[in-house]
Write a structure and sequence with these properties.
The complex is a heterodimer of chains A (153) and B (389).
Chain A lengths: L1 H13 L5 E7 L2 E6 L4 H12 L3 E9 L7 E9 L4 E8 L7 E3 L8 H12 L2 E3 L28
Parallel strand pairs in A: 2-5, 6-7
Antiparallel strand pairs in A: 1-2, 3-4, 4-5
Chain B lengths: L4 E6 L11 E7 L2 E8 L7 H5 L8 H5 L6 H16 L6 H29 L4 H21 L8 E2 L2 E2 L7 H23 L3 H7 L7 H6 L5 H4 L7 H4 L20 H25 L23 H12 L7 E9 L2 E9 L5 E7 L1 H6 L2 H5 L4 H11 L3 H5 L1
Antiparallel strand pairs in B: 1-2, 2-3, 4-5, 6-7, 7-8
Helix pairs in contact in B: 3-4, 4-5, 4-11, 4-15, 5-6, 6-11
Classes of the chains: A alpha/beta (153), B alpha+beta (389).
Chain lengths: 153, 389
C-alpha cells in the first residue's frame, strides 16, 4: 500500500503543475481533479507513461446547485501495477455543457460518452457518433439530471 | 452481376439475440458490411431509482441488473457500500457463504451461456444437459433463500440467512460431480468438427484491441490478458483460495468457449475449498447502526428499535465517493457510489460488463458472414438487462 502511495505521488509530480486542481484520498482510492483544458493531456500521459491503459468507465455526476454543474469522472486501471485511479473534471458552464471526447485515446469511451450524453445532456466535442443510446431519439430531457422527476414526465 | 446492400433488422425479438437486442445489419450478399446495435429496450432507470432509496432498499434492484447472475450483482453492490462505510471485516461464516454463492452463480451463468451458445450454433443436446445442472443450483438457492433467480440474501455487514442444515453437503456433492458430468458435455462440442468450424477463427481479438475496447472477463482472458479481479484486486479473501485463471491464445470464439468451461471447473474447486473451511458462527456484524439485528432477537425492544429505524430511515453513509469492482460471471462489474452524507446515495453508476463488451460486436462482425454474427452474440455473453440497466 505504501508503495502504491509513493507511486501515485510520483504520478502527480510528473503531471504538468498547472493541470492539477487537487487530489483527494478516500478509503485508499485516489481522485485527481484536473482542469478541463488539460484533461486530454493528463489522460494521455497516464495512458502512455504510467500504464493506465484500461479505461474502466466514464460517467458524470450532477452537482445541481454548483457552478459548473456537471462533474465528469474517468476510472482508469493499470494492468502492470494493478491499481485504480480516478480522474475528475468539470463540463463547461452553460447549456449544453461540453467537454472534449476521449474516443481518440480509447474506443471504449464511445458508448460511455453516448450514455453520458443521453442521461445528462453533456456534449462530448470530437465524438464520432454522438446520439442517444439507451433512450430513443426524440426523448425529451435527460433523466439522470437532478431536476428531472423520478416518476418521469 | 448486380451488387446491392441489403438492410436487415436482427431482433429485437429473435431467439439468438439473448433478449431484446436489435442489430441493424447491412449485408452485401451474406457478408456483413456494418452492424449497429440498438439497445435500451430494457432500460429501467435503476441508477435513478437508487438515488431515491436507502442503501438497503436498493439491494433487490441491483439483483435485477443481470438476471442470470442475480447474487453476483448484489454482492458487488453490498461490497461497495461496505467499503464506503469502512467495514473491512464481516464474520467468517458470512464471507464463506458469499464466496460459495458467488461461485455457484458463476457456474449457473456459464451453464446458461453454454446452453444458449450451443443452441444458437445448432447443437441442441448441451441445452438440456446444462439447464438440468443449472436447475440444481436454482434449487440450492430456493432451499436457502426461498427464491430461485434472485436470492436477495446479501446485506450490508453479512448475509441475512444461514445455510439450512445439510445444504453444505449437497453443494459439496454437486461441486464434486459437476466436473465429471462436464466431461460428457465436452464430448459433444470440443472436438466436434462442426463446432470447431463455427467457432475457430471467428471473432478474433488481440490484446491491444481488448485494452482499446475496455473488455473484461472471459472476453479479455480469451486473448491472453491476465485480468481476473479475484486475483488482481482481491475481495472476500479470494487470495486465500487456490484456483487457476485460464487464458486463451488465439482470442477467438473457440478459446473463449474453453475458458468458460475451465472457469466452471475452477469455481467448483473454490466451492470445495470454501465448504471445507466453512466455520460455524455469526453471519452478520453486530453494528446495528448499519446491519440488521438477528430476526429471533427482534422481539426484544433493545433490538427492535434499531431494526425499525434501519428499515424506515436507513443509515447515513459518510461523505465521499467509492468505486468497487468485482469479477462477475460476464466480466468486470463496478459500482461507483457518490455519497453526500445522507441516507440515500447521491449518484450510483453501475458499470456492467455486458454494456462494455457488447460494443465490440460492430468491429468483430464487419466482413464476416451473417451466421458468424450469431456466434459472436453468443461468445460475448450478454444479458440485455445487464446492458440497459
Amino acid at each position: 500500500m505504501e508503495n502504491l502511495k509513493d507511486y501515485i505521488k510520483g504520478v502527480i509530480e510528473s503531471l504538468p503543475p498547472e493541470s492539477l486542481v487537487s487530489h483527494v484520498e478516500f478509503r485508499d482510492q485516489v481522485t485527481l481533479v484536473v482542469r478541463q483544458v488539460s484533461l486530454l493531456e493528463v489522460l494521455k500521459i497516464l495512458k502512455d507513461d504510467f500504464g493506465y491503459k484500461y479505461l474502466i468507465d466514464v460517467t458524470a455526476v450532477d452537482r445541481y446547485e454548483d457552478d459548473p454543474r456537471f462533474e465528469v469522472v474517468y476510472h482508469l486501471w493499470c494492468h502492470e501495477r494493478n491499481c485504480l485511479l480516478r480522474v475528475k473534471t468539470w463540463a463547461s458552464q452553460g447549456e449544453p455543457p461540453t467537454i472534449p471526447s476521449v474516443v481518440g485515446l480509447w474506443n471504449t469511451a464511445n458508448w460511455h460518452e453516448r450514455e453520458c450524453f443521453d442521461m445528462f445532456g453533456i456534449v462530448f466535442e470530437g465524438h464520432p457518433d454522438l446520439r442517444r443510446i439507451l433512450l430513443w431519439e426524440g426523448f425529451d430531457g435527460h433523466p439522470l439530471r437532478k431536476d428531472y422527476p423520478v416518476e418521469g414526465r | 452481376m448486380r451488387k446491392e446492400i441489403i438492410k436487415l433488422n436482427v431482433g429485437p425479438q429473435h431467439p439468438s439475440t439473448h433478449g431484446v437486442l436489435r442489430l441493424l445489419v447491412e449485408l452485401e450478399g451474406e457478408v456483413v458490411v456494418s452492424c449497429d446495435p440498438d439497445i435500451g429496450y430494457l432500460h429501467r432507470g435503476i441508477e435513478k431509482l437508487m438515488e431515491n432509496r436507502t442503501y438497503h432498499r436498493s439491494i433487490p434492484l441491483t439483483e435485477r441488473v443481470d438476471y442470470l447472475a442475480g447474487a453476483a450483482n448484489s454482492l458487488g453492490y453490498v461490497l461497495a457500500v461496505e467499503r464506503l462505510l469502512g467495514i473491512s471485516e464481516i464474520p467468517e461464516r458470512a464471507r464463506y457463504i458469499r464466496v460459495i454463492v458467488a461461485e455457484l452463480t458463476r457456474i449457473a451463468s456459464h451453464l446458461f451461456w453454454l446452453a444458449t451458445h450451443g443452441h444458437d450454433l445448432g447443437a441442441m443436446t448441451p441445452l438440456f444437459y446444462a439447464l438440468r445442472d443449472r436447475e440444481i443450483i436454482m434449487d440450492f438457492f430456493e432451499t436457502w433463500a426461498g427464491k430461485r433467480l434472485f436470492p436477495n440474501m446479501f446485506r450490508v455487514g453479512g448475509v441475512a440467512r444461514d445455510f439450512p442444515d445439510g445444504l453444505e453437503q449437497e453443494i459439496k456433492k454437486f461441486a464434486l460431480e459437476l466436473p465429471q458430468r462436464m466431461r460428457d458435455y465436452e464430448t459433444l462440442l470440443t472436438k466436434n468438427p462442426i463446432w470447431i468450424n463455427r467457432t475457430k477463427g471467428v471473432g478474433v481479438l488481440t490484446k491491444e484491441e481488448v485494452l482499446d475496447y475496455g473488455l473484461s472477463g472471459p472476453m479479455a482472458r480469451g486473448s491472453g490478458l491476465n485480468f481476473d479481479i479475484r486475483r488482481v484486486d482481491p475481495y472476500l479473501g479470494y487470495d486465500e483460495f487456490e484456483f487457476v485463471v485460464p487464458l486463451g491464445e488465439n482470442g477467438d470464439t473457440y478459446d473463449r468457449y474453453l475458458i468458460r468451461l475451465e472457469e466452471m471447473r475452477q469455481s467448483c474447486n473454490i466451492i470445495l475449498q470454501a465448504v471445507d473451511r466453512l466455520p460455524k458462527g455469526d453471519i452478520m456484524i453486530e453494528d446495528y447502526q448499519v446491519a440488521f439485528p438477528p430476526k429471533d432477537k427482534v422481539i426484544n425492544g433493545e433490538y427492535l428499535i434499531p431494526h425499525y429505524l434501519l428499515v424506515v430511515k436507513g443509515f447515513k453513509a459518510p461523505k465521499g465517493e467509492i468505486f468497487h469492482h468485482t469479477e462477475a460471471p460476464k466480466g468486470e462489474l463496478g459500482f461507483y457510489i457518490v455519497s453526500d452524507g445522507s441516507e440515500h446515495p447521491y449518484r450510483v453508476k453501475i458499470r456492467t460488463p455486458s454494456f462494455v463488451n457488447l460494443q465490440v460486436i460492430s468491429k468483430l462482425a464487419k466482413g464476416r458472414l451473417l451466421s458468424d454474427l450469431i456466434a459472436l452474440i453468443g461468445t460475448i455473453d450478454i444479458v440485455l438487462a445487464d446492458v440497459d440497466r
